[in-house]
Amino acid sequence: MPFFGPTRAALAAAAARGADIIPSLRLVLTAEALTAPPPSHALELNAELDALCAAARELAVCRAGWLYFCGTDAPLPAAVPRGLLQGTVLTFLRGVLRSEGRAVVRLLPQGD
Q1: Residue 59 contacts by C-beta under 8 Å, 6 or more apart in sequence?
Q2: CA–CA separation, 48 and 54 (whole Å)
Q3: Quick one: pLDDT band at residue 66, thresholds 50, 70, 90?
Q4: CA 9/CA 3 separation, integer angstroms
């Protein structure tokens, strides 16, 4: 993340002046997630996605029943940066929220 330090500082200064930094901030966060090294221990995707979906449901309490998480029967470890996984799911949910539809996050073993 030190590589993006000056960019974050410039965005903070722009935000302090009242500029709209959301599009630029989104690009920086995506770049950070894509360039992050793989974690030393694989994430357990069932647990990680369940926690992420539970947090998303809490943030959108007024939308009861709009988000469902379907895990797998077996643990699915993956050596992906947590920020990249979270960003992917949140980008998907953003589209669902805009459409006022329902979302299902379904986790399948590779090859299914």
Answers
A1: none
A2: 10
A3: confident
A4: 11
Phi-psi region of 70 (alpha: psi -120 to 50; beta: other; left: phi over 0): beta
Confidence class for position 36, pLDDT limits 50, 70, 90? confident
- The C-alpha angle with vertex 28 and arms to 40 and 35, in degrees rounded to 5, equals 30
Check if the beta carbon of residue 106 is closer than 8 Å to that of residue 54: no
Which of 66, 49, 47 lies closest to 57 in space, CA to CA?
A: 66
Query: What are the backbone dihedrals phi and psi of residue 69, each rounded to the nearest 5 degrees, phi first?
Result: -115, 125
Is the pLDDT assigned to residue 8 strictly greater than 50?
yes
Q: What is the DSSP string of 33-60?
A: HHHSPPPSS-EEHHHHHHHHHHHHHHHT
Give the count of alpha carbons within 13 A of 106, CB side only.
6
Assess contact for 65 and 28: CB atoms under 8 A. no
CA–CA separation, 82 and 63 (whole Å)? 26
